[in-house]
Structure formats: C-alpha cells, structure tokens
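Hello,

Our lab assistant flagged a job as stuck in the queue for most of the afternoon. It eventually completed. Since we weren't sure the result was trustworthy after the delay, we are filing this so someone can double-check. Below is the sequence as submitted and the structure that was eventually returned. Let us know if re-running is recommended.
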Amino acid sequence: MRAAFIQGEPEPIQTIHDVSIPSDYGTLPGRLYHPSTTERLPLILFFHGGGWTVNDLDTHDRLCTLLAKKSHSTLLAVDYRRAPEHKYPAALEDAWTSLQWAAKNQESLYADTSKIAVAGDSSGGTLAAALALMARDRGGPSLTQQILICPVTDYLEPATGSYRDRATGYSLNLPFMQWSWRNYLPADWSRDDGYLFPLRAEDLHGLPTALVITAEFDPLRDEGAAYAQRLKEEGVPTDHWHYDDQMHGFAMQTRTIDRAQQAVHDVATHIASHFSD
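-- returned structure --
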C-alpha cells in the first residue's frame, strides 16, 4: 500500500512538521500542514483511510498537502491506532482525543479553532462521521463541517447493489472489506452502534454541514449515497457529489488522474467557502 501511494516528490507547502498528540494510550503521531506563516487559519482535522488497518501519515501526505493549500486552511492529520492490534473503538477514541487536544491548542497549531472541519477518506471518512456524531452528543467541540470521501457508513451485509455490482475488479473489493472488518470489529459489537456504523445512528439531527463523495465503481457507493440522503432528510445541510467515472480511492491519484486532481481542488474550494460563511 505504501509503495502504491508514496510516489514522486512531496507536494510543497509553506510549513509542514510532525507533532505528538498526548493520549491515555501514549502519544499519537500527527502531521501539521500550514500554507501561511502569517495567518491563523481554520483547522481541518483529517483521518486517513485503509480499512482501519493499513496506511499512515506518509501515504496521505500529498492529499493532505493539497487540501491544506487549496482550501487555505491549517490541516492536522492524525495517525490513530490501527487494527488488528487495536480494534474498535480504539481509532475513534484517538479521533476524539485529537479533536479535544486540537481545540485547546490553537496557539501551537497556529489555527483558528473556532472553525474546525473533520475530514477523511474511506475508513477515515467513517471516523470523521462518527466524530461529528460524538462531538454533537458530548456537547462539543463545535464543528463547522464534515468532509466524507467515499466513507464506510454501514456493514457489508446484507449486500447493497454496489457491493453486488462492484465486488471485484476495482481498487477496493469485497475480500479487502471482509478482511478489514475482521480486523476491526471486537468480539462484542452491535449493528445498532451509530459510532461504528453512522448510517445506523438513531438520530442525525444537529450535525455540521456535510459533503459526501461517492464513486460509481466502488462497493461503498450505495451506503455513502444513503448516508447523504439521510443527512438531508434529517435537516443537515448536505452536498452529495457522485463521480460516475471513478473508483474508490481516486482522490489519492491526483498525479495520474486529471479528474481526481480537479475533485480535490473542488473539495478544497468547498471547504474554504464554508469556513468563510
């Protein structure tokens, strides 16, 4: 996975450095991206995908740099504990810890933490969605928006149409998702746990503005679309962008796919516009 995603020279940005986020389980690695040395900018808290098992700060370095630069925001990428050594809810606990820490450390992050977005791709999108639910349920920190790029929002059974139609042959397949869930799920888990399966959350009212991205050739397509629809139905201002010629993970391929490059630019513009509201 690292060989597939870490290619070419890093994307330049004004400031980038690693940080350590204290937690009850030791320090969490993070990486801070800042496109300016003179401005205190809104904050994006980003969680990488990889089935809660693979990938890290390096695999998503280019995507994070592009999002920070093009949205003119500070971005903090968090490297949460991963399965199978650390099963659910470890990654979500780390996401919650990182959000609380970031909200209290605007000086060291040189960020405006009155404006915070949570974002992630794939399983990282799941963490972002669950974190938005958790922040609402626990009374803050307040979030401005959530950016969910091809998120996992439900279990893989019963199979949706996209799981049946796109189970094999593309960048994400059914065997990988089966492996990821085996790694991530603890012995005792509930299908009704909205932090584990955001689509199954009892109530989505009061969540921050959402952008949900889905791709046609992605087993997760239908559950992402269903989550966007539920958000809309429950009064959450939501944009759903569907890319009918792309597959899962295309946002990571900005060096080789023109539409991916444009999509990341559009996402960053969307983030900036909602921070300025």
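-- support follow-up --
The delay was a queue issue, not a problem with the job. The result is valid. Strands lie at 15-21, 28-34, 41-47, 74-78, 111-121, 145-149, 209-217, 238-247. The mean pLDDT is 96.
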